[in-house]
Amino acid sequence: MPTERTVEHPDGRVERITETSPAPATVVERRSGSGMGAIVALIIGLLAVLVIGYFLMNMNRSDAVKDNAIAGAAESVGDAADNIGNAARDAVPERAPAPAN
Fold it and tell me: Under DSSP, is residue 6 helix (H, G, I), strand (E, B) or coil?
């Protein structure tokens, strides 16, 4: 509520002064959360790590399966080459030894 007062100076001037009280202080409340946001973020982070790990492990397994398939195919090609070599050897008749002179 403003307060008014009057001041008379010796030279005859009259001065009216209005004073107001300062505004009330503002109170700021700071509320802290329960921490559920941090827990949810931690759970989501762990799930992300598990999913990424699962896919990386499956990628390694598929690479191993592919490598085993390639090795098996190479072994089959080697066996086929042995069979062709045996067939070629069996197809050619043995020669008689050359007579000695």
Answer: strand
